[in-house]
Amino acid sequence: MRKSLLALFFLSLPLLAAGKNLDIYFIDVEGGQATLFVTPAGQSMLIDTGWPGFGSRDANRIAAVAKHAGLTQIDYLVVTHFHIDHAGGVPNLVAAIPVKNFIDHGPSFETDAAGNKLYADYTTALGKANHIVVKPGQKIPVKGLDITVVTAAGDEITKPLPGAGAANPNCAGVKMRDADPSENARSLGSLIAFGKFKVVDLGDLTWNKEMSLACPANLVGTVDLYLSTHHGLFQSNNPALVHALHPRVAIMNNGARKGGSPEAWQTIHSSPGLQDLWQVHYSVEGSTANNVDEKFIANPDENNDAGHYLKVSAQMDGTFTVTNSRNNFTKTYKP
Fold first, then answer.
1. Which of 22, 98, 144, 226 is the one with CA 20 to 30 A from 285?
2. How many CB atoms are closer than 10 A to CB 44?
3. Residue 311 phi/psi, 5° resolution?
4. Quick one: what percent of the chain has pLDDT higher than 70?
5. CA Rg, the chain, in Å?
6. Domain 25-333 has CATH 3.60.15.10
7. 138 CB burial (10 A radius; 0-12, 13-18, 19+)
C-alpha cells in the first residue's frame, strides 16, 4: 500500500509542477504576432510565428520563451492567416522547436507571386505533421482549454456562443467600409476559455468582418482579455465589436512603427469597463497622447529593443495577473 501511494505521489509531480494557471506569453516579434499559451496540463498552443529572416530573430525569441515555460515542443500551431508577419516565420520556427499539429483556414486567398511563395514555404515546413483545417464553430482540441473558432476563410459563426446574442447598442452610427479582399479578412479568429477566464484573438480581421460578429447582435459575448486586432491598426478594432466585448484588460501587440494607430488606441482605451491597456511596444505614431504609462509597455525604447514580452497568468475563477518581463511590473485583476 505504501509503495502504491509513493508511486501515485511521484506520478503526480509533473502535474504539480505544471501549476494551476493558464500562462499566455505575448512575444515581441516587432509588429507581427506570436502568442504562446501553456496550459496547466503542460500542453501548448502558439498563435502565429512572426516574421522570417533577421537571423531567425522571431523563431529564436519564441523558442527561448517556450524553453522558459518548460516546453520541448509546440503541440498546436495556429496560423491565423497567410501574411508574412504572421506565417512567414514558420520555416524558422520548425527548425528551432518541433511542432506537432498545424491549424489554419485552408489555402491562401492571395495568389500573387509573394502569396504563393509564402504559402508554399508554409506547406513545405508543415511536412508530414498533422494538418487541421478549421471552420467557424469548430473546436481546437487543446487539453484544458475550450477554444471555439469564430472566424475563418472569410466566414464567421452565425449563431451566438453560449451567453452571447444580446442586441448590440454599440452598432449605432458605425458604418461599413469598402470590402477587404486580402488574407486579413480571412483571419482565423478564436475565443479561448479557461474556466471563467476568456480571451479573444482575431488575428488581423478587418472592420467589416468585425461588424459581422457584432451587429446587430453580439455573437461572441464578453471577454476578460482582448488582444488588439491587427496590431492596433485603424483598419480594424471596430468600436461596435471592441466595446461589445467589454474587456477588462487589453493587450496591443504592436511594433514601434507598426500598429498603435491613435484612432484604434482611443477605441480600445475608451472601451467601457476597461481597467488597463498594455502594449508590447511604445507606438511612435501614437506619441505621448496615445500611449500608456511606460510601466505598462514591454519595449518603450525603439532604439534599444531587447524583445521583452508580456505574460498573463490566469486562474479558472477569472482572476489573472499581467507581468511586464522588462521591469517585472505586475498587476492582478480580480473577477
1. 226
2. 24
3. -125, 135
4. 94
5. 19
6. yes
7. middle
> 236 pairs with which residues across the strands?
none
pLDDT digits (tens, 9 = 90+) for 242-275: 999 999 999 999 999 999 999 999 999 999 999 9
Length of the chain counted residue by residue: 335
Judge whether 140 and 197 are in contact, CB under 8 Å. Answer: no
Which residues, given as ranges, of the chain have pLDDT below 70? 1-19
Cell numbers representing residue 236 in the block:
480594424
What is the SS3 string spanning the chain?
CHHHHHHHHHHHHHHHHHCCCEEEEECCCCCCCCEEEECCCCCEEEECCCCCCHHHHHHHHHHHHHHHCCCCCEEEEECCCCCHHHHCCHHHHHHHCCEEEEEECCCCCCCCHHHHHHHHHHHHHHCCCEEEECCCCCEECCCCCEEEEEEECCEECCCCCCCCCCECHHHCCCCCCCCCCCHHHHCCEEEEEECCEEEEECCCCCHHHHHHHHCCECCCCCCCEEECHHHHCCCCCCHHHHHHHCCCEEEECCECCECCCHHHHHHHHCCCCCCEEEEEECCCCCCHHHCCCHHHEEECCCCCCCCCCEEEEECCCCCEEEEECCCCCEEEECC
Tell me how far apart the alpha carbons of residues 223 and 248 are, in angstroms, rounded to a whole number: 7
User: 218: buried, middle or exposed (CB in 10 Å: 19+, 13-18, 0-12)?
Assistant: buried
Those residues whose C-beta lies under 8 Å from the C-beta of residue 55, and which sit 6 or more positions away, are: none
Q: Can you tell me the distance from the alpha carbon of 100 to that of 5, in angstroms, rounded to the nearest whole number?
A: 34
Residues 214 and 171: their CA atoms lie apart, in Å, by 8
* Per-domain boundaries in the chain: 25-333
CA diameter of the chain: 71
- Give the three cell numbers for residue 112: 500573387
Torsion over CA: 231, 45, 151, 160 (sign): negative
